[in-house]
Design goal:
The complex is a heterodimer. By secondary structure, chain A is of the alpha+beta class. Chain A has 22 helices and 15 strands. Chain A has three domains: 1-64 and 169-238, Arc Repressor Mutant, subunit A (Orthogonal Bundle); 66-168, Winged helix-like DNA-binding domain superfamily/Winged helix DNA-binding domain (Arc Repressor Mutant, subunit A), CATH 1.10.10; 249-505, Bira Bifunctional Protein, Domain 2 (BirA Bifunctional Protein, domain 2), CATH 3.30.930. Chain A has helices at 2-7, 12-17, 27-34, 38-50, 68-76, 79-86, 94-101, 105-117, 133-140, 144-154, 164-174, 194-201, 215-220, 247-261, 275-278, 310-322, 337-341, 350-359, 403-416, 459-466, 480-487, 500-505, and strands spanning 54-66, 121-123, 129-131, 157-158, 180-192, 265-266, 272-274, 299-301, 343-345, 367-376, 388-397, 422-426, 432-442, 447-457, 472-475.
Chain lengths: 511, 548
């Protein structure tokens, strides 16, 4: 029979609770009758409910009780009474009232508002506060609020049991800070099911079944020829919290892995750079709007850094001014070394590519490099903008590289990060030519999204840094779009919100 | 990116074709611009800043019709001599040294054309002219003015005229403080002793560049048939390009471009010059960069699609194109005409060795050890508030401040990790405890050794936060980590404002200070509004990595 089988799986806690269920209905009663802890009774009830022996009805009960300030007012009296008491004999200035009645500024202000409404006080021409006739009457009488407060100081009250006057007092208190709190309690009531009624009739023997396997049991061998109590293997268990990498770092690690698979070597370097590396070496004219304060973060102190070796600076200057010896017109202006010294938070990881090219020897070619890192732009935080964002960067320095290769590398990477459908359209960046914008197709929104830019670095960038005109394929799209897509995040700020619950529950990066 | 509005009807007339929306969108994109949206009769497009010549309806249509093959090749513009001149007075040379001028005749201005000329001016001002810093453009109705025109500089208190959209005369100086446009551009002039002005033969003021025109002599109306155009600024070439962009757009509206003589104090010039510029084209260079095998006649066809033309091995470039600096730019034009969508995607068989940066590998290993201890990794911003970093932590540091922070919550670069991490704990008070978190991040401090005079370090921060956290617990984590990476360390008691006295330690490895360990001081916890105990350590990862 089912009920007999069930009795053999009962946990000791369940065995204790079960016989009480015919008399006790509420959790509180069960705790008292069983002398168990509340959590233990709860667990036993949960298991019994899983076995369909008992039904648990949850009834919400809303009570009101005193909060921090309420408790204090029970002892010291309500601020308005203390206020009136302070001016009972003579009119006083506000500061004196606050001092005598031991009230803080906020309470004083609240009192003035409410007492003036009741015409209990008036302000004298010399800015003192004076008690009025109605005020004197108020002082003699216990108010509705005070009565209510007194009642609450004895025990919490069920909201349903309040009379109209108490309800009125409650409404007034709720407008004020931390006097009353409303507590929603869930009352649990138990009811035996039909199965439960049968089970309870069976005389449950104290079981000799083994509850837990213990070292002692194993040493003595006492477990032999005995039964183990059956567990409910389907029962829910409390969740565990595990250690975990941040989901953004899981994704950036994955991007690293892809580039390494494609034979790229990682570049690292500082976040703070001189404008020379971030802009000038990348042939971005000194009056280019991206260098303005509303786009780029500058540093107050040290506002300026040092320039690299003179020869490099001279070549960059010549390139900007008239195209140096590169067959270029340059930007046709007078290049200012002071602007190049200004420290900026890097606006793109391309600054790492510039530094890598400057250090690269032509005998080490062909060479391929990548970087994944944080970049900065002066932007107010909102759902679609962050002032810090992740970018991945790649360069291929290869005398035989061409535009088709650029598209090939990018296409391969995009497929691996989950964008099999991509298109490349012409774009403009000061430091590349061919320049292309990478668009990826969103299968659900049926729309193209911009992921970022790529291109072949201009000779005006490559020659001053590397010393030779060699094609350098380069790309630097953002990484945040892929992450929000994979993790189903609508608001970019979520990426760095660090809500631990979200971090614990966020799925693993599975690409 | 600047965007312009095209009148659909005018645009279709100009390109001589009607395209279905989808094709229009695709072609506009593949030309290297972007169709933003179509609203009724208006097409909104975005133009990259390297193509100021496409910032007008006419210029855009000119490039687009060549690209789609309806009107290919180099456009030629006829130039007549207006026989009029502009005198550039000695006084203006130190103030605003250059101007380039022209007259365009036979245009019937209507509402649409007036809107169009204002749009070109406005868009050029914002982009190519860098908010009028580099150049400023003025357009004037010829029926109101008498040549010759003089460009001169004068004390702004002495010159009076009625600025645009204003009913009374003001001095140059008053305009800067009282007129809305004057206030917007005041910063471009206010430091000068003399301001630049244009005046006509009758002594009427035409304008005060780069700020504003005269209401009387500087406003186009539907009665205007002939206009005087000037661009003034600091680099002659920029003025020429600007002038060319405007006069060719006006010519595309049906106007007749006429040159003017510019009488500079020591030389004479005639503007505009619309004869094409020539650049040598190297077909091999082009084929190599694009991975194509084009013949010369094929390349020539592609150039025609971009509004250029090939004459033997010279490419002829119209004077309004400001984006061709180098041969490379011609190669890009070939690629665009060829169609980015038509290039194969190739990965060449080049053997290179991939490698994750050693410091990154090291950071990964440390993260794995801490994850093994059940800790959650966080990821916080490098920017933080100075108040949180120094005051709340009770630890005054000489931090790196931003010149232009977005707001006070993020006004410095952090000098250590623990403040960022306490920020995380503060934001997670509603979540389950224990909260054991770690993060490896970059910190910033002053230095004399680096180019920027700022040194960056990778630091590991670890915070344990739960009701029974103690110094022992955090030291256990630290010890476990150091054992795992096999580093012996020495530890000594120190004082630190953020930690409880007597429960704060400094750790060194081989004589180098590398870490702080301690129980966070209750005052600091209170400053952060935290009511659960917290113990933490911070380890200099960059420094210990040197031992490997």
């Amino acid at each position: 029979m089912e009920e007999n089988k069930i009795t053999s799986t009962l946990h000791p806690l369940e065995r204790k609770i079960l016989p009480l269920l015919s008399k006790c209905k509420t959790l509180k009663e069960l705790v008292e009758a069983s002398k168990l802890k509340e959590v233990e009774v709860m667990r036993a009830l949960q298991w019994l409910s899983n076995k369909n022996i008992v039904k648990i009805h949850i009834k919400p009960k809303e009570t009101v009780e005193l909060d921090e300030n309420g408790l204090a007012y029970v002892k010291a009296g309500l601020p308005e009474r203390r206020f009136l008491e302070a001016i009972k004999t003579k009119a006083l200035h506000l500061d004196a009232i606050a001092k005598n009645a031991k009230l803080v500024r906020e309470e004083v202000n609240a009192c003035i508002g409410s007492l003036r409404k009741k015409a209990a006080i008036e302000i004298t021409p010399d800015k003192k506060i004076k008690l009025t006739e109605p005020g004197k009457k108020i002082l003699l009488k216990e108010s509705l609020e005070e009565k209510f407060l007194k009642k609450l100081s004895k025990k919490p009250i069920n909201i349903k049991e309040l009379n109209p006057e108490e309800k009125f007092a409650l409404q007034n208190f709720l407008k004020r800070k931390q006097i009353i709190k409303q507590v929603l309690e869930k009352l649990r009531e138990t009811e035996l099911t039909d199965l439960g009624k049968k089970v309870i009739k069976i005389k449950i023997k104290t079981s000799s079944d083994i509850e837990r396997v213990t070292p002692e049991l194993l040493k003595t061998g006492k477990w032999k020829n005995k039964q183990f109590r059956k567990y409910d293997v389907k029962a829910d268990v409390p969740a565990l919290n595990r250690g975990k990498r941040h989901f953004v770092n899981q994704a950036t690690d994955y991007a690293r892995q892809i580039w390494v698979e494609l034979g790229f070597k990682e570049m690292t370097g500082p976040i703070l750079n001189t404008s020379f590396w971030n802009f000038d070496a990348l042939f971005t004219a000194q009056d280019h709007p991206v260098r303005e304060l509303q786009d780029t973060f500058y540093i107050k102190h040290p506002a300026k850094g040092k320039l690299p070796p003179k020869k490099l600076v001279e070549n960059v200057k010549a390139t900007h001014e008239h195209g140096w010896n590169l067959g270029s017109t340059g930007w046709q202006y007078s290049w200012n070394p002071e602007d190049a010294k200004k420290n900026v938070l890097r606006t793109h990881t391309t600054v790492l590519s510039a530094q890598t090219l400057a250090a690269l020897k032509t005998e080490d070619l062909p060479a391929k490099f990548f970087a994944v890192g944080k970049c900065f732009r002066n932007e107010t935080l909102d759902w679609s903008h962050l002032f810090e964002f992740n970018q991945f960067e790649g360069i291929v320095v290869d005398p035989d590289a061409n535009f088709k290769h650029l598209l090939g590398y990018l296409k391969n990477f995009l497929t691996k990060i989950g964008f099999p459908k991509a298109r490349f359209r012409p774009a403009y960046f000061p430091y590349t030519e061919m320049s292309t914008e990478i668009d990826v197709f969103h299968p659900v929104h049926k729309k193209w999204y911009e992921l970022g830019g790529a291109g072949i670095l201009r000779p005006e960038v490559v020659v001053p840094l590397l010393g030779k005109d060699i094609p350098v394929l380069a790309w630097g799209p953002g990484l945040d779009r892929q992450m929000t897509e994979f993790y189903k995040i609508d608001d970019l700020r979520e990426l760095y919100k660090n809500d631990l619950k979200q971090l614990r529950e966020m799925k693993e990066w599975m690409l | 990116m600047p965007s312009i509005v095209l009148n659909k009807k005018v645009f279709e007339e100009l390109i001589g074709k009607k395209l279905p929306l989808e094709e229009l969108q695709d072609r506009i994109s593949m030309l290297g611009t972007d169709l933003d949206r179509v609203e009724g009769n208006e097409i909104h497009v975005e133009v990259f800043p390297n193509r100021p010549d496409m910032l007008s309806e006419q210029g855009f249509a000119r490039a687009f019709s060549a690209f789609i093959g309806s009107k290919t090749g180099l456009r030629e513009y006829k130039l007549k001599d207006s026989k009029e001149k502009v005198i550039i007075d000695k006084s203006v040379i130190d103030v605003r040294p250059f101007t380039a001028c022209a007259i365009v005749k036979n245009i019937n201005f209507n509402d649409e054309k007036i809107r169009e000329i204002i749009q070109i001016q406005e868009k050029l001002h914002i982009t190519y002219c860098r908010n009028r810093k580099k150049a400023a453009i003025g357009v004037y109705p010829m029926e109101k003015i008498k040549c010759p025109i003089t460009f001169f500089a004068e004390d702004p208190k002495k010159v009076k005229f009625q600025p645009l959209e204003c009913d009374k005369e003001m001095t140059g100086l008053q305009i800067l403080s009282q007129h809305p446009t004057g206030r917007d551009y005041a910063h471009l002039l206010e430091e000068q002793k003399k301001f630049p002005f244009f005046k006509d033969a009758n002594g009427q003021i035409l304008s005060m560049p780069p700020v504003i025109n005269s209401h009387v002599t500087g406003k186009i109306t539907e009665k205007t048939k002939e206009v005087f155009i000037e661009c003034s600024g600091f680099d002659f070439n920029t003025q020429l390009v600007c002038l060319n962009i405007i006069v060719t757009a006006l010519a595309d509206m049906g106007g007749e471009i006429c040159s003017m003589e510019l009488e500079y104090p020591d030389t004479k010039k005639v503007t505009p010059d619309l004869s094409p510029r020539k650049i040598k084209f190297d077909l091999d260079y082009c084929n190599k960069l694009l991975g194509l095998d084009l013949r010369m006649h094929e390349a020539a066809k592609l150039f025609e699609r971009m509004g250029l033309s090939l004459e033997k091995d010279d490419v002829l470039i119209p004077r309004y194109r400001a984006d061709i600096l180098h041969q490379m730019d011609l190669v890009e034009d070939v690629a665009i005409a060829y169609g980015y969508e038509n290039f194969e995607h190739q990965i060449p068989k080049v053997a290179t060795i991939g490698e994750i940066a050693p410091i990154e590998q090291f950071k990964s290993k440390i993260s794995r050890i801490l994850v093994g201890l059940g800790m959650l990794e966080t990821n916080t911003y490098h920017l933080i508030s100075k108040d949180a970093h120094n005051v709340r932590m009770n630890n005054e540091m000489d931090v790196i401040e931003l010149e232009n922070p977005v707001n006070v919550e993020y006004d410095i670069l952090r000098g250590w990790m623990i403040p960022s991490m306490l920020g995380v704990l503060k934001d997670n008070k509603h979540n389950e405890y224990p909260q054991n978190i770690f993060e490896i991040g970059t910190i910033f401090k002053h230095s004399t050794k680096t180019e920027t005079l700022v040194e960056e370090n990778e630091r590991l921060g670890v915070c344990l936060c739960s009701k029974n956290v103690t110094f022992t617990k955090i030291k256990q984590v630290f010890d476990c980590l150091m054992n795992a990476i096999n580093l012996e360390y020495e530890i000594k008691e120190v004082e630190h404002g953020s930690f409880i006295s007597g429960r704060t330690a400094r750790v060194s490895v081989k004589g180098k200070d590398v870490a702080y360990i301690g129980e966070i001081h209750p005052q600091v916890l209170e400053n952060w509004d935290l009511d659960v105990p917290c113990a933490a350590f911070e380890l200099n990862v960059t420094e210990i990595f040197k031992f490997f």
